[in-house]
Design a protein that fits this description.
With 448 residues, the protein is an alpha/beta fold. It is built from 13 helices and 16 strands.
Length: 448
């Protein structure tokens, strides 16, 4: 067997790591996981407060999911749902999903993950208007948003001209960006609550300027994810829903990260009592045990598409992935996972507001459920972010102390931000342990 160092060297020269420098790695090889803890090849343990990419919602080593996958693989490892074929497992999965998604979203396209789901949502939106005889094709999205790495999803992503877009060449046309709901960095120079929710109202103004007859859909994350787990003001989503309905523009909620209990409810849009026309999901649908995703949409869209030939992917409706999703959804309900996320998230937020927000370089603590973040700044008055080297050092020091956190830096986001997105099954004791590790690291930062 290769030594750990030999394996790392081989990896460096042969494997390209997403959103990382080609020809490099960080030297960590993970081999095992149980609960919220990962173990590397050297036996070092890490409390995973990233849930990797905020996707391992149920933690590691859930035997029930593994057994459900194995049973399905032994029975039927794969069959296509192209050309009208189906399989019993994907039908049962869709039925259970229909009972979990917001009311009215009971039609599904299945995919292999988040980026594919977003691409599917765009094609559904544009096709719906096409079959209605309308040339509505433009997609409006937010600056500071993240929707994926395939070309259409990347065109909708609004995180600037950084690593994500390097070398991608001209992106697909028909995509428009407007300011996000990040109140800490308001593009309009206003302060909540005296801002009249200008970020939402600007959507209406943009649709009017572009022409409602040309705009197919507006897409946004219920909370900004990769930009730092940033929640919107409470009035934002109800106003956006109203604007989209008035202008006959489809509303797409990107719940790839927020879905399946991450924010303390099955889907984040439930916090504001709104229902999108299309809801994109992945990550938590199988707790990342297998690659899977889905776009759910309403009766009106389904009836508009009925009888027409639509999109498909080789692994759409993969029975083993559907089996993983079925068991995962069963666990969410049986164990009250969303409720645990809400309870532990409130405890963490109380500690963050009470102990961390008073530190010289910590500001703008916020989030919902177990989707939490805080800005780290050189000056609270000027809201000056630290350079990427500092956020990288915070992440490195946490890892050295056995804690995995995710730090966003000023190169790709509005500011330096530390994000906490652990598995939704973590305990209060594990939450306190993580915060106890992180606090002295952030307390050691020096203000300008």
């Amino acid at each position: 067997m290769d030594t750990a160092n030999t394996a790392i060297d081989w990896d460096r020269e042969h494997i390209l790591h997403p959103l990382y420098r080609v020809g490099e790695n960080n030297g960590v090889v993970i081999d095992e996981g149980r609960g919220a803890v990962l173990r590397d090849r050297n036996g070092k343990e890490y409390l995973d407060f990233r849930a990797q990419l905020a996707c391992v919602n149920l933690g590691y080593g859930r035997r029930e999911i593994v057994d459900a996958i194995a049973e399905q693989m032994n029975k039927l490892p794969y069959t296509t749902i192209f050309h009208g074929f189906s399989n019993s497992t994907v039908i049962e999965c869709a039925q259970r999903l229909a009972g979990m998604t917001p009311a009215g979203l009971a039609h599904f396209v299945f995919t292999s993950g988040g980026s594919e789901t977003i691409e599917s949502a765009f094609k559904i939106a544009r096709s719906y208007w096409h079959f209605k005889g309308k040339a509505k094709y433009k997609i409006i999205s937010l600056y500071d948003s993240y929707h994926g790495m395939t070309l259409g999803a990347l065109a909708a992503t609004g995180m600037g001209n950084g690593n994500a877009w390097s070398g991608a060449g001209p992106l697909p046309g028909g995509f428009i960006h407007i300011p996000s709901y990040d109140c800490y960095h308001c593009a309009f120079g206003k302060a909540f609550p005296g801002c009249d929710i200008q970020c939402a109202r600007f959507l209406g103004a943009t649709i009017a300027k572009e022409g409602p007859d040309s705009v197919a859909a507006f897409i946004a994350e219920p909370l900004l994810g990769v930009s730092g787990m940033i929640p919107p003001p409470p009035e934002y989503w109800p106003l956006v829903r109203k604007i989209c309905s008035e202008h006959k523009v489809l509303l797409i909620a990107d719940e790839v990260m927020t879905g399946f209990g991450r924010t303390g409810k099955p889907f984040a849009v439930e916090h504001w009592g709104i229902t999108p026309d299309i809801l994109a999901m992945a990550k938590g649908i199988t707790s990342a045990y297998l690659p899977f995703g889905a776009a759910a949409f309403n009766d009106e869209i389904f009836n508009g598409l009925k009888g027409n030939v639509m999109l498909g992917l080789t692994y759409s409706g993969h029975p083993a992935c559907a089996a993983a999703a079925l068991k995962t959804m069963e666990i969410y309900v049986k164990e009250g996972v969303a409720e645990n996320a809400a309870r532990v998230g409130r405890h963490m937020l109380d500690r963050l507001n009470g102990e961390f927000n008073g530190l010289p370089c910590v500001d703008n603590v916020g989030g919902i459920g177990l989707m939490l973040g805080m800005n780290i700044v050189r000056s609270k008055t000027a809201r000056t972010p630290f350079p990427p080297a500092v956020t990288a050092e915070v992440e490195k020091r946490a890892m050295e102390n056995g804690l995995l956190v995710r730090c966003m830096n000023a190169a790709t986001t509005p500011g330096s931000r530390v994000a906490l997105t652990p598995p939704l099954t973590i305990t209060l004791a594990e939450a306190d342990r993580a915060l106890d590790i992180l606090k002295p690291i952030l307390a050691g930062l020096k203000a300008a």
